[in-house]
## 1
Amino acid sequence: MEGAPLVRAPKLPLEHVRQKSEQRDLLAGCLVCSGRTPRWTKANAQALAAQHHDRTGHATWVTIATEIQYGNTAPDPRQADIEDAIASASSGDRPGAAPLPDPDAPAVPAAGVSAPTKAALSKRALAAAKPEPSNV
Ligand SMILES: [Zn+2]
């Protein structure tokens, strides 16, 4: 068959990109001038220790510590996107706390309760205002 379309494989992130961070700490000193106390601590500490030995003949030392970390401990932002997608799919994209309308509920909340009459109110008002009996 001529002109058949080629089936292409989907592009996937097949290549893993490794995150790497490296920190290098240098300490250098002169055993004659300062003993084991570091005298040079910047990136050129090794060169300064070598120069100091060449110029003075003093015994110098260099300590190099390299810390390498692969990967990152920070949370992956793609994980939050996945959780949001799952939450919106399970709630049907509606807010979860929205109340559903109740067709049996009365239109006015106090419809079944009768209001007190004017006479009942005045009886209660008189009872409340009645003076206490005096014991004179
Ligand atoms: Zn020295």
## 2
Amino acid sequence: MISTFFQCIAGWMRRYEGVGRKLTDKCNCRREKVYSGIGGQAVLEGIMMKNSEKYAVAVRKPDGEIELLKEEYKNSELMKRLSGIPFVRGVFNFVDSLRLGMKCLNFSASFYEDEEETQMSESKEKLVNTLVMVVSFALAIGIFIVLPYFLSSLFKKLITNSTVIVLLEGVIRIGIFLGYVSLISLLEDIRRLYQYHGAEHKCINCLEHGKPLTVENVKESSRLHKRCGTSFIFFVMLVSIVLFFFIRVDNVLMKVGLRLLLLPVVAGISYEIIRLAGRSENVLVKIISAPGMLIQRMTTKEPDEKMIEVAIAAVEAVFDWHHFLQEAFGIVCEDQPVRKEEMEASSDGKADESDL
Ligand SMILES: [Zn+2]
């Protein structure tokens, strides 16, 4: 239960991988980076990959087999319309990704439930899940929004400049976030979740750099990606520093309340920034993406080959990478699958830790 709770909060960090779009018009440029448009999320002992309206969850079951769930993800007409409106779409996409993320996390967790939990009736399980969501959300708001505000106000006697206090609040928030991310990595489940997160990025990077999706190529690819949810959270913290400057009321309740009310605005703006960052190789974009990429070194870890195999299974369930490589890079791959043989051939190799 406790790890489900942490995964719930951790899961929020990783659902923005898919917000960039395809740039297939660059198909003549060989070996240049081309965005695939696929995104994903790490789940318990597995990976969820999403490609437009299709998504798949691949989970390594306790018996060692990979279980694959493949489904369509249909957005309602209202959602489709809302997702076309800049600044509004970020909020709805965020809520939407939480819902899908939770569903996939539950699917993966169902293979690892202990007996006590399996005996729960379906309605009771739903109630528990909702409770976990609500408690996680309330705690996240308390820890990342309200606490930094109160901690920074402790310095008001020492620092009279309100601009410095708002800046300090932002710094404390980033500090708490970094502390949280590294602290939960001490949990075995979360450490493995970070490894699967790394596997997910590595698969996407492998394809977007024009390499066939094999275990060896995935291992060599970077585990950092500009469109990552970790980077999104970092942008949220940066944007909130700027927006919270404008809260000029004296009442403490009003101050906290306005911070909460501004959250959708913060999320909306951050979403637009990460969308832009995912599409551009501009120097300025690289500079603002750098801190998020640095934090990804904490939220991703080098996966082992078995994890990479799971990630590849999830990608292949929703994405025709042979076609993508041919269209975007002009690479024609020989007929696959080669995964199994390759796994055997490279099973004594160690995971590449050079990115750490
Ligand atoms: Zn990510």
